[in-house]
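ugh ok so i messed up the first submission bc i forgot one of the chains. this is the corrected input, ALL of the components this time, i swear. 571 residues overall. if the numbers dont match what u have on ur side tell me asap before i send this to the collaborators (the ones from the other lab, u know who)
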Amino acid sequence: MIELLAPAGNIAMVERVVANGANAVYVGPRGWSRRRDAYEMDDADIRRSIEICHAGGAKCRVAINTNMQSHEIPPMLAKMDRFVAWGADGAIMTDIGAIAAVHRRFPGLTIHASIGANILNDEDVRFYRSLGVSQVVADTKLTLRELASRKEHIDVGIEILIHANKCYTYLGKCWMSPYHRLERTADASGKDVFKGSPNRGGLDYRVCLEAWELYSGDERWEARVALKNDAFFLLDDIPKLIDLGVHCLKVQGREYPVAMVGGMLKFYRDLIDAYVAHPKDRPFDLAPWGERLGAIEASRDRARSEGTRLLLIEARQPA
Amino acid sequence: MRIVRDQGKRAYLTTYAAPRNDFLPRVRKALEIAATGGAEAVEVHNLGILKIAHDEVPALPAHVGGFANVYTDAGAEVLKGFGATRITPNYELQLEEIDQIARDSGIAMELLVHGKMPLGISDYCFLLEYEDKWGIKCPDLCQKDLFLRKDGWGMKSVGKGVLSGKDVCMLEHLPRLIAGGHRAFRIEAVSESPAYRREVAAVYREALGCALSGEYRQRERWWEAVRKHSRLGLCNGFYFGKSGMDYLGARP
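and heres the new structure output, hopefully the right one now
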C-alpha cells in the first residue's frame, strides 16, 4: 500500500493531517530542518507529534536534514537519542557524515535521504544505500523513465514529492540566498540557525524570484527575465506512480496554513483511495479531480506569492 | 592532458556536477581515459561518480569538488573511505570550520581563492528562450558575459548555472589561509577570458610565493589587475561567516 506522507509545522497541523488520512507525518526540530524556524518545533512538540501520529495510526518522521556543522553532530545525536526513545519512526537526513553517524548509533532506524541530498542517478542511490539509507526522496526534475530504472535496479524505497517547489536549480545545489543575505544567529538553545541558507538552516529568501534584469557587460538586454521556481501539484502522474510501485507520495508545505494543508491531504487521500479501489479494466477519469485541485492550487498560489514578496523584502534588510 | 603534462604541470580531469543516468556511460569513458592518459586525479562533484571511480578506477586519486556538499568532518571521513584524497569543502563553510575538517580528517582542502563562486546549477537553460530574439544560438549564448542584476544585486548567468556576480578575492587574506595549513588554491575561471586567467593567475602565483616566504607585502599592481577584471566588485564568499557578497578587509 502506497504511503501518503504529510508535512506538519505545528501541533494543530499534525492533528489535522492525521485526521485527514496521512499514513505518515514529518516534523522538524527547530534549527535542524529545511524550513524557517517558525515552522519547526521544540523537542516537547516533537514528542507530542509522535504521540498524536501513533494514536491516529500514522508514522512520525523527524527531518533533521540541514547540512550541519561538524561540532553539531554530537548534539544532533543526543537529540536523536530522545526522538528514537519517544518512538520516532525514521529520520530524514542530508549530510553524509550525519547519516553515517546516525546509522552507526541506530542501525535499526529507517533513514530517508532528503530532497536536499539531491540524489540524481542510480549510482548516487547506491552510494547512499551503502551509508545505511533505505528510502530516497526523488529530485523533482527526474522523469518517470529514470524512476522506473531506479525501481527496477535497486532495492530502495522511492519517495515522490507531489506538492513541492520546483526550483530553477537542483535542490541542495543552490547558494543564491545566502550569497545575498546570511545572518549567523544562535537561537535560545544555542543552535546556529543560519538565517538565509536553505542548506544550513532552512530559511531561503527565494532571491531567484527577484525581478531580474539581464545585462551583457554594461548593456541591458532584457528588462525582466525569470529563473523559474514554481510550486506544483502532481495529478496526471499519480496513477502512474502508484502503478510503478513507488513507496511514498510526499506533500510538502509546513509553511502554509493548517486548513490549506489539511485540504491537500484530504484531496490526495481521496484520490489515492479512489484510484486503488477502481476496477483496473476501466479508465480512471481524472477530470473531476483536476477541478477540485484547481481550487486548492489557487489558494496556495496566493499564499505563496505573498510569502515570496515578504521574503524578498526581508532579504534586503542589513544582516 | 598531454599538453599540460608536457609543460611539466599536473593535469586533472573534472566531471559533471549533476549527472543523470543517461550521462553515466560518458563518465565511465572519461574516467577510463583519465586513468590511462596520465591524469593526476579526477575531480568529482557527484557522489555516484565517486562510487564509480572508487569501484572501477581505484588507482586514480579522487578530488571531491564543491558541489559534493562536504560540510562536516564526519562527511570527509565517509569520502576518505571512497578514495578521496582532496576535498573542496562546500563554499558555505567558514575558515574555522574548514581548518577543523582538514585537521581532524587529515585530508587536504582545496580552497577557492579567486573568481566567481558557483551559486546554483540547473538542468534548464533559460537563455534558449532568447535565441530567436537576440539572433544568437547555443553554444554562443552563454559566452556573452551575462549578468542578472537588480537594485545593487548581481549574479553571473551561464544559462544552466548561476555564479556570484562579484569575484571572490582572498588576495589580502592569503597569509591566513597559509597559516591554516592549506596549500591547494583554486582560481575559478570557467566563464572568464584568457586574459583574466593569465593575469589573475600571475598575481596569485607571485602573491603565494610572497605569503609563503613569511613576509607578505601586497603590490599595487596585483590590485590593479584583479580590479580590472572584476565587473561587479570583489567579495570574500562565506569564509568569514558573512553573506557571500560581503567583503571583509582593508581593500574591497
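quick check: Chain B touches chain A through 65 residues (CB under 8 Å). that seems consistent at least. Residues 112-172+193-252 of chain B form one domain.
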